Amino acid sequence: MTMIIYASILLLLISTINGQQSVCKANETFRGCGANCVETCDFKPHICMAVCKSGCFCNDGYVRQSSAADSPCVKRETCKQKEDTSVCGANEEYRTCGSACVETCTFKPQICTEQCVAGCFCKNGHVRRDSNKKSSCVKRQEC
């Protein structure tokens, strides 16, 4: 009798797992224990808490198109930039994941939270002239 109960439970578990796997969309795989942090076209987590989450995850080489729960998995290289890179000014470059803490001639952040911000940022060796995010980027020694 107990063998029948164990066999029934085993069959139920197998059918549940197989049922969950079949709901995964293109470029996704079901995982019983996947990462809690989701990489998207606009966000790449640098630090992720080790929390086990079951569900459909993007296959290797793929990321979610957006942070929406039903967002499709796309190849990273097909991600579109949200901002036209031609609008970046002199000594600027477009980044999909730049720092939220901007260094200026009068301010150098000592501590900064880990946030991904997309947009135009000063190239290496350059800082914003002032705290206005549209101000020009100048070499540090020109401040």
From TrEMBL:
InterPro entries per the UniProt record, alphabetical: Ser_inhib-like_sf, SerProtInhib-TIL_Domain, TIL_dom
Pfam families: TIL
SUPFAM superfamilies: Serine protease inhibitors
Key word Signal present: yes
UniProt domain TIL: residue ranges: 24-79, 88-143
Signal peptide residues on this chain, from the entry's feature table: 1-19
Entry keyword set: Disulfide bond, Protease inhibitor, Signal
GO molecular function, one term: peptidase inhibitor activity
Protein name: TIL domain-containing protein
